[in-house]
């Protein structure tokens, strides 16, 4: 199947929309349907929810995997438009139909977790992480960092900061393995954030200052890093 991930620029959904529109006419029939689902997602990310749903309405599903993409992207648009209740059955259908593709199955599980009840989310994230860790698909294995971050956030929301830190530290190792500098910086920020909430202010400040230095070196600014540094510089040293 066509790898649509390389066509995406999530920072510029309008550019992604253009790429998908241009690719559809020359693609094979099955790939055309996959491209339609991603075109719908790009349109939805621009807030044009009705247009995105209309594209999915005319997308054909020649097999369960394409059907899973249709359900997944319909669920994403419904969730983004403020209808998580309507999104849930779409994500459940995507989970059901995506069992032949680990990466797609993980994506569906992770989206289902985002609309599930709090007591259900942990099991869904853990199931997705189990699949990621055992998969032979590189794209599926690379889901581990995002899933560990989600698990860490669930612990943080529950005030379980030691467990949150443990998850964020493993997520950081995964990001380092993947080699994406920007996402690795975010993962380091998460570790420092958890440390601050555990009272480890000296270690947390050292990490945030290193992040600040790296950002200055590449000419970028991150207000979240600046906010944490300001908080930590006023905090008692521990």
Automatic annotation (TrEMBL):
TPR repeats lie at residues 145-178. InterPro entries: TPR-like_helical_dom_sf, TPR_rpt. Transmembrane segments: none annotated. PROSITE patterns: TPR. Keywords: TPR repeat. The keyword Transferase does not apply. This is Tetratricopeptide repeat-containing protein.
């Amino acid at each position: 199947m066509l790898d649509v991930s390389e066509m995406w620029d999530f920072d510029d959904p309008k550019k992604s929309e253009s790429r998908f529109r241009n690719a559809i006419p020359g693609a094979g029939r099955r790939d055309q349907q996959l491209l339609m689902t991603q075109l719908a997602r790009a349109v939805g990310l621009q807030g044009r929810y009705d247009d995105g749903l209309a594209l999915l309405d005319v997308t054909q599903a020649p097999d369960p995997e394409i059907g899973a993409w249709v359900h997944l992207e319909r669920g994403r648009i419904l969730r983004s438009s403020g209808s998580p209740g309507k999104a849930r059955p779409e994500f459940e259908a995507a989970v059901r139909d995506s069992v032949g593709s680990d990466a797609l199955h993980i994506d569906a599980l992770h989206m289902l977790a985002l609309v599930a009840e709090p007591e259900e989310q942990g099991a869904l994230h853990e199931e997705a992480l189990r699949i990621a860790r055992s998969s032979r698909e590189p794209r599926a294995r690379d889901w581990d960092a995002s899933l560990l971050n989600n698990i860490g956030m669930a612990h943080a929301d529950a005030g379980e900061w030691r467990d949150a830190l443990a998850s964020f530290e493993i997520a950081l190792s995964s990001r380092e393995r993947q080699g994406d500098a920007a996402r690795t910086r975010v993962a380091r920020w998460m570790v420092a954030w958890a440390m601050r909430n555990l009272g480890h202010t000296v270690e947390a400040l050292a990490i945030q200052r290193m992040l600040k230095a790296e950002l200055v070196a590449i000419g970028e600014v991150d207000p979240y890093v600046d906010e944490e540094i300001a908080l930590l510089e006023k905090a008692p040293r521990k």
